[in-house]
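Methods: holo model generation. Sequences were used as deposited, without trimming of termini or removal of tags, and paired with ligand SMILES retrieved from the corresponding compound records. Each pair was processed once, and we did not select among multiple samples. The sequence and flavin-adenine dinucleotide SMILES for this entry were:
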Amino acid sequence: MSNLQHKTDVILIGAGIMSATLGSLLKELAPDWEIKVFEKLASAGEESSNEWNNAGTGHAALCELNYTSEKPDGSIDISKAVKVNEQFQMSRQFWSYLVNSNLIRHPQDFIMPLPHMSLVQGEKNVAFLKKRFKALSTIPLFQGMAFSDDPEKLKEWVPLIMEGRTSKEPIAATKIDSGTDVNFGALTRMLFQHLEKQNVEINYKHLVKDMKRTDDGLWEVKVQKVESGKIEFHTAKFVFIGGGGGSLPLLQKTGISESKRIGGFPVSGLFLVCKNPEVAERHHAKVYGKAKVGAPPMSVPHLDTRYIDNKKSLLFGPFAGFSPKFLKTGSNVDLLGSVKPHNLLTMLAAGAKELALTKYLIQQVLLSKEKRMDELREFMPNAKSEDWEVVLAGQRVQVIKDTDAGGKGTLQFGTEVVSAADGSIAALLGASPGASTAVHVMLEVLEKCFPQHMFEWEAKIKDMIPSYGVSLAENSALFRELHHSTAEALGLSERQLVYS
Ligand SMILES: Cc1cc2nc3c(=O)[nH]c(=O)nc-3n(C[C@H](O)[C@H](O)[C@H](O)COP(=O)(O)OP(=O)(O)OC[C@H]3O[C@@H](n4cnc5c(N)ncnc54)[C@H](O)[C@@H]3O)c2cc1C
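and the model returned the structure below.
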């Protein structure tokens, strides 16, 4: 049975952090636009954005070593770290705007101050960390970072990591107190509650099955009610595909030329979670190490304090793995179903190039809990198996495309906005740096899809996100002012004192 529905201005597919952010931006910029959301699950933030499905790191390049690389001349390239940090500052500003405007409340329910640390072992790695520290210390965005290779100091910073350590190898760490732990699940739910109050129609248990262009230039979206199986058709002037891992198959259904020759490679994640409160109480930081040789950048091991449901817990991982599903709640035929005549060669080329990665991921899936505990013990020598349990995290679908630099079938580790030339539809693919930079990425969607409105919207965007269009790395006074005001609005300054 079919049912033709009214047309609307905007359809957002998926109720994750990306649709939540885009909807919230649009409600401020174009309050009269009618917005509908379709989500296949029963509530918001249940897939990758859920607090147990990601690591909750407010990625600002304060601790992630993969954002700084060593150049052939031995110097450190910090350009990516600066970019990621500036993007995270935009998220802080937008969240602060929402709190200051009483559109969302209780920021302590989604963001907590938490030191971010990088920790390395071995002479070469220690030398790299020292150079990285020196390079970052010249930039205001990273001010307050400390370096130590003194085991006594490290015992103060990370007692659980130092206790029982017998290795005589040199060890060093950097520490910066202005890091954060973000509960992206809670934030997503808050933003959808706010959108509901702003008359956005949110349809849970509605699966988007197909999309096509109508003769009058609109998009017709075919939606199935999960419980009754009933089919509905909704039309919109603009559609955002925010389906997380499920975005690629939906993008392919649009048939737009920009969707061709793109593939996806799913990487699953597992964490070890410590629920023993006595152990969790003795660690207070996100501590990022170095990825093992052959491991993809998203499986850099880290030992994190997490604040979820007002409880402190510890999380270690993520262990990468292979699953053909594009979503945690996806299907085993997702990967196969995404291979189309137009991306077959790209996918085959990637398959041939990434054999080592596939082998690594399959080996990771087969690890027993004890083997995973052994990896944790490289971080925390005295970790006891009975304190830790394995939890399944979210799926990340990495983009595969042909690039000038990498050639046919190159695996990408970043996020990509793919949009139609006329700006009527856009999709977000990839998952890194991820939720932390949602505001920056959704502003990119607006710039690509609504260029005709950007002049009119610019003043409001700058009111919400004062660093929009400005390099904070080159404007230290503005950075300090915004860092201070966002810390106040999000309650980070006083809680930093309470918890550290
Ligand atoms: C293991 C792991 C660790 C991570 N760690 C971090 C971190 O520390 N910091 C960070 O910033 N980011 C991190 N990320 C990335 C971050 O979680 C994602 O970038 C972000 O949550 C993606 O949000 P989204 O809204 O695009 O997707 P999702 O949150 O996955 O939401 C997509 C929604 O679309 C729905 N959907 C899909 N298809 C359909 C359809 N056909 N019809 C209707 N609904 C549909 C899904 O049910 C889902 O609710 C991590 C990710 C993983 C997997």
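The chain has a mean pLDDT of 93.
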